Amino acid sequence: MSFDDKATCWDTDPKKLERAEVVSAAIREQVLLTPATRALEYGCGTGLLGFALRPAVGELVLADSSEGMLEVVEQKITDGDFDQVRTLHLDLCADPAPNECFDLICSLMTLHHVPDYQGLLRSFYQLLNPGGHLCIADLDAEDGSFHGADFTGQRGFDRQEFKHILTSLGFDHIDITTVFEVERGTAEVPRRYPVFLMVCRRP
Question: Based on C-alpha coordinates, what's the Rg of the chain?
């Protein structure tokens, strides 16, 4: 099932709502956000993280490659009458980067779906204003059981390797902490997958 197909029922999962609130709170603890902050949520889905951060920022751009997800976001914008929130259909692995810069770029459980994630991180660096922050919440390295054998993305990320890549791209003030766990499996054989929050800065 594609993300377009999942869009209309995405927000019915209370765990997705909870994790967006948890990650939003963790970001606000580590990054000073103000009404002057221009924020981009990349791979926004239905915008759960972005909307959780919205009261703390100024302009908010919610970007995704899924038209179905963006339709849900646009309905939320209309229903909430948000005047500083807009959508952007964007796949930074295939499309040119927009001609604008941000003070905050965030993503939640997006990066492990991206084959060329290092190229995506490089694009994030270019899209940040000097002094801007990148905040990524994603899976720790796992054995492939999270999505299953047919998944073609990343099996999570080794934290030290991830930090090394960010440093090589020019980021500094890199901090990585565990922010929550995703529970899968069965009641008899539960599986818990740690998710980190990485916060770093473009000098």
Answer: 16
Euclidean distance between CA atoms 44 and 90, whole angstroms: 10
Angle at 102 between CA 157 and CA 20, to 5 degrees: 50
> Are 155 and 141 a contacting pair, CB within 8 Å?
yes
Domain span at residue 44 reads: 3-201
CATH number, domain of 148, equals 3.40.50.150
pLDDT above 70: percentage of residues in the chain: 98
pLDDT value of residue 54: 97
Strands (DSSP E) along the chain, which ranges?
A: 39-42, 60-64, 85-89, 102-108, 128-139, 172-185, 190-201
* Cα(119)–Cα(64) distance, integer angstroms: 17
Domain count, the chain: 1
pLDDT reported for residue 184: 84
Q: In angstroms, rounded to a whole number, what is the distance separating the alpha carbons of residues 134 and 121?
A: 9
What is the edge-to-edge ordering of all strands in the sheet holding 128-139?
85-89, 60-64, 39-42, 102-108, 128-139, 190-201, 172-185
- What is the reported pTM? 0.94
Contact 63, 87 (CB under 8 A): yes
Please state, in angstroms and rounded to a whole number, the distance separating the CA atoms of residues 31 and 54. 14
Q: What is the pLDDT of residues 56-75, one digit of tens each?
A: 999 999 999 999 999 999 99
Mean pLDDT of 80-106: 95
Contact 22, 178 (CB under 8 A): no
